[in-house]
Write a structure and sequence with these properties.
Distance between the termini: 32 Å
CATH architecture of the largest domain: Sandwich
Number of strands: 30
Strand content: over 45%
Helix content: under 10%
Shape: flat
Strand order of the largest sheet: 3-13-8-5-6
Number of domains: 3
Radius of gyration: 26 Å
Order of helices and strands: EEEEEEEEEEEEEEEEEEEEEEEEEEEEEE
Structural class: mainly beta
Length: 331
Amino acid sequence: WTGDLGFNLGEEVTLDEMSFNSQAVNTFEFTVSNPNGQPDMNPENNTVSQEFEAAPQITTSIVNFELKTDQYPAETSWEIKNSAGEVVYSGGSYSGANTVYTETLEFDDFDCYTFTIFDTYGDGICCAYGNGYYKLMDEGNVVFAEGGEFGSEDSRPFERYEEGVVTADFMADVTSIEEGDVVTFTDLSLGTITSWSWEFEGGDPATSDEQNPEVTYALEGVYDVTLTVSDGTNNNTMTKDDYIEVDHITGISTIDKDGIKLFPNPTTGKLFIEGVEGANIKVYNITGKVVASYSDFSDKSIDLSGLENGVYFIDIVTDNNTITKKVSLIK
């Protein structure tokens, strides 16, 4: 997102769906830079991060719900929504103080769900006015979500997961490269995967049985990538058409048909950019951190000599589109 904001104003930004390897604990990091095209006088507060846990998975359709109210049961209610945002179950408010309520819920659809509990007073159900709690358990009464100490609301996601089903999926660390570059593929498949079979059109190797292979592309072109996964019984295949785009190395890299050019590449520091007057340009390092930015670009070149040797990504935002190019810095 780019744009201008007045003092003390904000804007809600909806991100595109993104693929990643889910860990037990994940971190989302958000960074702003060059506010309204100006250097930030207080850059120390420009990055925030938030940890989130992977949603627990259940393989049975039955969920046992248990709720103990505090001394103010009328303040408590809850709901469960599916991935479409539809409320599939709800309850409350309640009348019995310090009372245990139980329900058996059935989830026939294999989907992602979110349980949210509300307290109208804003002090949760534990522990100032009683020892209230909630528990979500599978059919065997194994707890997969619980709590009680929160403010106005508490949300817990979970997934009704189908055993014996595998779904192939993957991502590449970069999809627009130059001849001779190496691409690292990361498996994002779902299920109890025991084998992987990759096919890399135009790549070396052309096939692989590794989970996360590295592939070199020697010749200019646009290439498909196919992954087939198996759990020993069930198989699933995903093909991403025209997934890897390989440019020819000329020393002057033409980025798109509109005549935008960056050269030389590799560069020793000074990188000339043509055809981007008025564009917004950001330079990212290999970890995704913005290391330089230029608004309403009108110069002939940018200077990368103050950066460490390595690979950088130049993000060019024009009125028509956004273009990203990989550049090597070798001093």
